[in-house]
Amino acid sequence: MKILVINGSPKGKYSITLQTCNYLKKLHPQHEWDTLFAGQQIRSIEKELTEWMAGDRQTLCPTLQRVQEADLLLFSYPVYTCLVPAQLHRFIELLKLSGVDLRGHCATQLCTSRHFYDVTALRFMEDNAADLGLRMLDPLSADMEDLQKPVGQLQARQWWQLIEWKMAGMPAVQPSQKRVIIVADLAPDDEELAQKISSFRALLPYETELFNIRDFKFTSGCICCFNCSKGGKCSMPDGFDTYLREQIQLKHDSIVYAFRIKDHSMGSLFKLYDDRQFCNGHRTVTHGMPQAYIVAGDLSREENLRTLLISKGEIGGNYLAGIMTDQASLEVGAKQLVWALETRYTKPSTFYGVGGMKIFRDLIWHMRGLMRADHKYFREHELYDFPQKEWKASLFTYLIGFMMSNKKVRRMMGNRISEGMIAPYQKVIDEARPE
Ligand SMILES: Cc1cc2nc3c(=O)[nH]c(=O)nc-3n(C[C@H](O)[C@H](O)[C@H](O)COP(=O)(O)O)c2cc1C
Question: Is position 368 within any domain?
């Protein structure tokens, strides 16, 4: 593949995001990698494209030629104030103005940030890629320190594997024995949803089970009695807590939900099912299990519902293999679910997951006297990641702060501060070996 990394960071070669691209480049030397410093060199690119647009446009200018010749455009950028840096924004603006034909070309995006509104930046790129006719593949939104950690390195490698698989046309993956359950709110006369469920089951190379929540005799919805807060035992006599754990969560590798859109949601019965999951408190008990949704109804008009479906997976640590509304999306979703199950795909959470878990973390800590089962789980799973525990890293920022605030020291240091910032990433790259 010819890959053009469009580096949108104004920091140029000192970009932290670019280090992940460099890491992938080191692991995959079989590809042809090229980097366009769009963020740092936006003024000269602007001049080049403006002059080209004013000319006869017989042949493409060098920058547009690099863009058009690439098999894959890899937008690499930091999240800046909930979007992308202005320089990258300008580059996209220029691409659109130039009228360069990128229809059908493939692109993907890799960003780093602290996950504060990374979701809006990702969506901004997706929407603009769609304007350009680009086929946008899955993004990687990493924390700026992720590459320094083994799990972050694994997620970068897994993401790249996914991109290569997609670029190769998503060939069939050798299936092992996995168990998938479809939890549905299926009315007896809903032939459309029934048809979608059976198509999906036929597409999967696994045995699947169907659980229609209409068949379960719920006593009532959650009444917030907090009986479950100590040991997870629900006070309702219908046995749903045991059924949920033993028949749905523990027995399966993936849960797929199927529903018809009602009142801009999954319907009141699914809401009852979700509320009753409060017997698991704020414990992410299905963490790592990929999930998907089969939907009947017009989802294109339901932005809030779509956000909700995405957020649920993000908070629970579940890879969302697809929100499937028609035959084409069922086929893609089934392939992606198999891929995720067989490769044990994990990805970093976005703002929805990271932000949500920080709120839960503080809430559980505050209410640990009452929410004992949650408190135990958070302690055992090291989810109390309060920043004040990282005193060494905090101390380091004081050192950097001192150097940055002192003009003389800053002048003396020159580029060494930027070099120091990327040094731990450089070490990871140096130690990486081609896969
Ligand atoms: C102007 C500016 C705005 C930023 N805005 C955000 C933000 O909205 N959300 C976030 O999580 N991080 C934000 N950051 C942090 C950067 O996204 C983060 O440091 C990133 O990893 C830098 O990548 P780079 O070294 O490739 O430029 C901001 C940084 C700057 C300088």
Answer: no
> Does residue 196 register a pLDDT over 90?
yes
**Cβ atoms of 39 and 116 closer than 8 Å:** no
Atom from ligand 1 closest to the CA of residue 116: 11
Domain boundary among 354, 381, 411: 354
CA–centroid distance, residue 77 to ligand 1 (Å):
9
Q: For 109-140, how does the pLDDT look when each residue is reduced to its tens digit (9 = 90+)?
A: 999 999 999 999 999 999 999 999 999 999 99
Rounded Cα distance between 77 and 38, Å, is 10
**What is the Cα–Cα distance from 241 to 276, expressed in whole angstroms?**
8
Split at pLDDT 50, 70, 90, the class of 251 is: very high
Query: Which residues does a 6 A CB cutoff place in the pocket of ligand 1?
Result: 9, 11, 15-18, 78-82, 112-118, 144
Ligand 1 atom nearest to 7, measured from its CA: 26
Q: How far is the CA of 98 from the centre of ligand 1 (A)?
A: 28
Answering whether pTM is above 0.90, one says yes
From 17, 77, 80, mutation site for ligand 1 pocket: most ligand atoms within 8 A of C-beta: 80
| 261 and 292 inside one domain | yes
Does 237 lie in the same domain as 292? yes
91 Cα distance to chain centroid: 24
Are both 185 and 324 inside the same structural domain?
Answer: yes
The CATH number of residue 269's host domain is 3.40.50.360
Pair 185, 300 in one domain: yes
Whether residues 69 and 153 fall in one domain: yes
Domain closes at, from 167, 187, 216: 167
The Cβ-side half-sphere exposure at 99, using a 13 Å CA radius, reads 7
- 3-state DSSP call for residue 398? helix
Q: Whose CA is nearest to atom 17 of ligand 1?
A: 113
Atom from ligand 1 closest to the CA of residue 9: 27
Neighbours of 387 (CB within 10 A): 9
* Contact criterion met (CB below 8 Å) for 71 and 106: yes
Question: How far does the centroid of ligand 1 lie from the alpha carbon of residue 252, in Å?
Answer: 39
* C-alpha Rg value of the chain to the nearest Å: 24
The verdict on 132 and 225 lying in the same domain is no
Distance 78 CA to ligand 1 centre (A): 5
